[in-house]
Amino acid sequence: MGFLNKNYAEWKITVELMEGLWPNADLTDEQLAVWEKELSPLHQETLRDAMKDNYAGKGWKTPRLADIKASYRLVRDQLSDSAKQPWESVDDGDVDEELIRQSHQHTLDLLMVCDFDVLLPAAKEARRKYGWALSNHDGDDPCKWSIMFRHAVRQEIGEDELRKQVKNQRVDSWLE
Predict the structure, then answer these.
(1) Does pTM surpass 0.90?
(2) Looking at residue 135, what is its pLDDT?
């Protein structure tokens, strides 16, 4: 086991969780190979959350692959829904590209005035929650982050904290 997965260490943590949740499950090597083929390509942290939810909700003595995959889809969809932007429902004909560009720049400007003790924990939490779905989120420089990751970090910080950060920088007009 482990040859199919590019990130064996993460898959191993998932298997250890599974063994801890279902200690009486006696899966054969062939069954484990199927589990690995089906589950190892998935985002492992989200998969582990789904396994915990599945265990808590079902209480099966042995894990059921179909139930865990269904739980994973539910957790993944919840994460995806929470990361959607408010303008996604707008008809393409009504989209003002300049307004969107200004919104993205506004978010970057807000992040740039944040203290590191506010910015970095929010970025860490956004990576934990959405990193599997967002690109360009490494490092501590918001200028190098993707637009979507910047918005995820902004969401994690929250508008009230952003207002405090801006007031500390005496740039109140940025939030208006």
Answers:
(1) no
(2) 65
Q: Which residues contact 171 (CB under 8 A, 6 or more apart)?
A: 113
The dihedrals phi and psi of 19, each to the nearest 5 degrees, come to -65, -35
Q: What is the pLDDT of residues 92-143, one digit of tens each?
A: 555 677 788 888 888 888 888 888 889 999 999 988 887 766 666 777 888 8
Q: Where are the domains of the chain?
A: 8-82, 96-175
